[in-house]
Amino acid sequence: MKEGRLFTPEAIFQLGTVEEAGNVVERDLEVGYKNRVYILSVGTQNYLDALRSYNQRFSPEEQLDDNLLVMPTVNDLNLVFRTLRSMDFEAIAPYLVEQDLDG
Asked: How far apart, in whole angstroms, are the C-alpha atoms of residue 66 and residue 42?
């Protein structure tokens, strides 16, 4: 099996979190990677399931974005950063949303 390229961001900053019962279940991150800026959302499977269930009551245009990278836990920010840096870029790429800084 061929090894992928490791995800090696220049910078990662936290933008916001969602908490349930005192635990962080979702984090929005700003990621600098290869001279571009991206938003990356990470969350637990339970959070993603709840979000998808919540979205069912709305039309597709009104639904909240559920494009997030699932992790077993996102409560510890340093662990999230370490986990991201140990992953292959190909595994993270579908979840990166490029930001247009010129517009």
From this structure: 10
**Taking Cα atoms as reference points, which of 56, 78, 70 lies closest to residue 26?**
70
Tell me the pLDDT tens digit for each residue of 10-42. 889 999 999 999 999 999 999 999 889 999 999
For the entire predicted model, the pTM comes to 0.86
User: What CA–CA distance (Å, rounded) separates 34 from 103?
Assistant: 19
| Cβ proximity of 7 and 29 under 8 Å | no
Instruction: Please list, in sequence order, all residues whose beta carbon lies within 8 angstroms of the beta carbon of residue 26, skipping any fewer than 6 positions away.
Output: 17, 18, 41, 42, 43, 44, 47, 68, 74
In terms of residues, how long is the chain? 103
